[in-house]
Structure formats: C-alpha cells, structure tokens
Amino acid sequence: MTAERLAVLVAYTGDGGVERMMNHLLQGFTDAGVPVDLLLLKSRGGHVQGIPPGVNVIRLEAPTSLLALPAVYRYLRATRPAALLAAKDRAGRVALLARRLARVPTRVVLRMGMHLSGSLADKSALQRLARYLPVRWLYPWADKIITVAPAIADDLANIGHLPRERFKVIPNPTVSPALVERARQTAHHDWLADNGKNPVPVIVAAGRLRPQKDFATLIRAFARLRAKSAMRLIILGEGGDRRKLERLAHELGVEQDVDLAGFRENPLPFMYRADVFVLSSRFEGAPNVLVEAMALGTPVVATDCPSGPRTLLEDGRHGPLVPVGDDAALAHGILQVLDTPTAPEQLKAAVSAYTIEASTRQYLDALGISPR
How much of the chain exceeds pLDDT 70, in percent? Predict the structure, then answer.
C-alpha cells in the first residue's frame, strides 16, 4: 500500500452540515491526489449520494460505533494507512482504541466540531462525566486534535487536561468553487423571486428540526415581526421536532406564513434569495450554513451560542449576535438587518478562509500527508 494513503472514519447519520462538510473535505483530498479510504460507521441521509466518486467507500454499518472496533482494527492491520482522520467524538474513540490494539504507526488525528460542554449544558452531572471521561482517558493518545473554532479547542483542552498546543484550529471547508453557481439555480418556491426582489421579505433558516437548532424561538420571533408587517419564514430541514414546530406556528397564528420546507439537497438557492438568514441555535461548532450564507452575501443574524457565531461574525461586526432563546432580541436583530443590511462584499470577505482548497491544505499538514 502507498505510504500516503489516508483513511477517514465517520458516521453519516443525517442531512446536516457535518456530512456536507465531510464531502467537501473528501473532494479536497482527492483533488490533492491523496488516495482516500472512507470508513463509514453508518451511511444514512442524502449526503451519502454526494460522496466524491474518487473515494474508496468501506461501509462498516455497525449498530454502535464501539461495535465497529474489530473492523477498524482489521483495516488498520491490513492496510496501514499513513494517517487516519476520525470525525466526531465516538469515531475518535474507536480510532484511538483500534490504533492502540493494532500497534501500527498510523497517525491518528481527531476532528471535533462541537462545543462539548455547551452541548451538555442541560445534562446531569453524571451524563456530563460519562462524556468527559473518554476525553480524559483517550484523547491524550491522539497525534493532533483539529477543531473548527478556538473556543472548542479551549473547551476540550480544559475538559481533557490537555496542552493547548496539541490542538489545531482549521476553518471548515465550506465554500466550494461551485457555490455561487449552485446558489443561482432556481429555488422552486413561490415566495422567492429569481431576480432577488421578493415581494414580501423572506427569512430563511436551515438545519435539522431538533432542539439544538431552537427553531421554536425563531418562530416566536417571527410571530412578533409578522404582527407588525408582512413577511415570511422558510425553514429547511427535517427532524423529530416537525410536529411540535407546526403546532407552535398554528398556535401563534402564523402557519400561513411559515413553511417547514423539508430537506433540500441544495439549500443554497433559498439562502441566496433570502432577505436575511437566521441561525437560532442553542449551541454549534462552526455552523456551515452561516458561512455559506455569508459567502453568498446574504445578511445574517445569529444567536451568541457556543461557539462558532461570535468568531464568524467577529463579535457582531458582520451581523447581530443575540442571546440564546430570546425571541424578542432575535426579532429585534432580524428587523435591524432588514432595515440596514450588511454589505455583501463585507460578508464574503469575512469567510474567505473557509474555502475547500485552503482548509484541505491545513488538514493535510496536520495529518502529515503531502499532496501530490
């Protein structure tokens, strides 16, 4: 086997930004001439179809990440890739254990995109400890830990009692060369005008319909705005909170102006034509949808959640940062942007480091692999 072969261990579990980001990164690796084996712990969701054709896909399909340990061990013993990139916490644990058992010189690099303590803020002390202990026990075995924001690195260093120099912050490979071309495709929605002049202002949000994204607060904020003037809200994504959100829109009397439009393989035309894009999350890592909206020049509003939005918006310089769960403040921020939108060129410049090419170079450097 070639000494420069790269393995990537990850679970595709839905239609979120992590899977889309991984596809971008895989494309960057193959474009750099690096042979890639993609070890899929799970393969669910629309982004599985977007895995670049040059990637060698190995479907493990384990019921749990830990049960994939024997398969990853056998892969490492047989293939001995130069490096293994493990995305997400559970995949990272498996990668570190498998490397220790296989006794191979493969370099293991973890990629963490979530602010761990922020994601566990509403959990019990015992639940937090169950997530923290693997970080303290296993993460010291990693050759490098990549995070998508400085606050995530600081958080993990504190949790795991790890030296900060063990971490490398790399912007997500979010902005592709085809971003604008894909965004200019037709949105196929009656509320969005192809010429960019919507007859009624349209707010767009995107993400899985689950508590983390807190679309309930966004709908409440929208109801405040809708009571004063005509506007519409489109939320892209699917998930377990759909019925709850539909009931909320009905109770607030705004169901005719709220469209839970479901998962879209290409959400960019919606974001491109929106009057404002909103991120209402309770916690994030580095929200790819916020980067994409800014790269398209669409004005944005975001909650000041841990940890990505404040970094992206440079403490509110490029768009309002509002408290988490505060629908009144979110409504005020949206109205502020609708009245005085941030200049598109300012937004695009703010995310210039998030291109696939720039991010891929830094990943390969952290992995110790030279592009061809």
Answer: 98
